[in-house]
Amino acid sequence: GQSLEQPSEVTAVEGAIVQINCTYQTSGFYGLSWYQQHDGGAPTFLSYNALDGLEETGRFSSFLSRSDSYGYLLLQELQMKDSASYFCAVREPPRDDKIIFGKGTRLHILP
Amino acid sequence: EAQVTQNPRYLITVTGKKLTVTCSQNMNHEYMSWYRQDPGLGLRQIYYSMNVEVTDKGDVPEGYKVSRKEKRNFPLILESPSPNQTSLYFCASSSTGTTNYGYTFGSGTRLTVV
């Protein structure tokens, strides 16, 4: 079956680094995406990995290991505004637009 | 401004009364999709569309209908709403012309069926 596993909650301190893991089990795989959602808001796209390795976008980085069916989102220099839920999502063939979301990780940031 | 517009933002209705949630995007995106979000269940796909007149079921299509008569619009129709369709709904779109396949989401519609 299709499944994405990510921790339900993570807590970190302002200014620190936090890693949010995602493991997936799908019948096929095109790529792994990450989205951020603040309370009451819409999900916003953060990053996409189609190949193994690290993609960096400012304070956020995303990593993928296809052989391990595993990825993570790394947030550096945490700010209070990073308090949000983070979702990993997998594009699953054969249809390009078949995207499955994980249940989300709630990130709590302590001052 | 590039955006996905959903209406209404909030809706309270009664069981069985047909309703439509509209979704429009101004980015000329081919892909459009509807999701519902419930506590502890994350985002679940209801229906999606690859282009005009092409729609397909997602993971939770029961009780919903969609249409894609124009590229920019993708309305969600609840013919006979029931209380278990109380949820937060998001419309999203993306383009085949990008390499990151990132979805742009609308602001959401919070639906309550009593």
What is the approximate shape of chain B? Answer: globular
> What structural category characterises the helix and strand content of chain B?
mainly beta
Largest interface: A-B, 24 and 27 residues
Structural class designation of chain A = mainly beta
User: First CA to last CA of chain A: what distance?
Assistant: 40 Å
Poorly predicted runs of chain B: none
H/E element string of chain B? EEEEEEEEEEE
CA(first)-CA(last) distance of chain B: 36 Å
Q: Report the order of strands and helices of chain A.
A: EEEEEEEEEEE
The helix fraction of chain B, in percent, is under 10%
Kindly state the mean pLDDT of chain A as a whole number? 91
State the total count of DSSP E strands of chain A. 11
Using only C-alpha atoms, the radius of gyration of chain A works out to 13 Å
What's the total helix number of chain A? 0
Largest sheet descriptor of chain A: 6 strands, mixed
Helix content range of chain A: under 10%
How much of the sequence of chain A is in beta strands? Answer: over 45%
The beta-strand count of chain B equals 11
Work out the helix count of chain B.
0
Commentary on this structure:
The complex is a heterodimer of chains A (111) and B (114). Helix content of chain A is 0%, strand content 57%. In chain A, the strands form 2 sheets. In chain A, strands 2, 4, 5, 9, 10 and 11 form a 6-stranded mixed sheet that branches. A 5-stranded antiparallel sheet of chain A has the order 1-3-8-7-6, with no helix packed on it. Chain A is mostly beta strands and 111 residues long. In chain A, a hairpin with a 7-residue loop joins strand 9 (84-91) and strand 10 (99-101). Chain B is mainly beta and 114 residues long. Chain B has strands spanning 4-7, 10-13, 19-25, 31-38, 42-51, 54-57, 65-66, 76-78, 87-94, 104-105, 109-113. In chain B, strands 2, 4, 5, 6, 9, 10 and 11 form a 7-stranded mixed sheet that branches. Chain B has a 4-stranded antiparallel sheet with strand order 1-3-8-7, with no helix packed on it. Chain B starts with a strand and ends with a strand. The mean pLDDT of chain B is 93.
